[in-house]
Amino acid sequence: MVCGASVDGQLRGIVELRGGFRSWRSTTEAAFSVEPDWQNIGIGDALFERMFAIAQNRGVRTIQ
């Protein structure tokens, strides 16, 4: 599962949540990337909140 954050039509940050195609494990892995010029303004926080909601909705209990 991948979610991105765009500003004025340009992708500035992305989060990937790795899980199974048909079913999610209780432990999964997440990776974040936000462009340096766009860090510390809340993009990472917003991506984390979205990723956390996606994980909860799929029964994930632990995110690494």
Itemize the secondary structure elements and their pairings.
Elements: E1 2-7, E2 10-18, E3 27-34, H1 43-57, E4 62-63
Parallel strand pairs: 3-4
Antiparallel strand pairs: 1-2, 2-3
Describe what you observe in this structure.
A four-stranded mixed β-sheet has the order 1-2-3-4, covered by helices on one side. The longest helix has 15 residues, at 43-57. It is elongated. The mean pLDDT is 90. β3, α1 (43-57) and β4 form a beta-alpha-beta unit. The protein has one helix at residues 43-57; strands at residues 2-7, 10-18, 27-34, 62-63. Helices cover 23% and strands 39% of the residues. It has 64 residues and is an alpha+beta fold. It contains one helix and four strands; from the N terminus they run βββαβ.
In short:
The protein is of the alpha+beta class and 64 residues long. It is built from one helix and four strands.
**What is the rounded Rg?**
12 Å
In the predicted model, the low-confidence regions spanning at least 5 consecutive residues are none
Largest sheet: 4 strands, mixed
User: Can you list the strand order of the major beta sheet?
Assistant: 1-2-3-4
- Overall pLDDT level: 90
Number of strands: 4
Based on secondary structure, the structural category is alpha+beta
Identify the quaternary structure here. Answer: single chain
Terminus-to-terminus distance:
15 Å
Q: Helical element count? A: 1
- Give the SSE order as H and E letters: EEEHE
**How big a fraction of the residues is strand?**
35-45%
Shape: elongated
Tell me roughly what share of residues is in helical segments: 10-25%
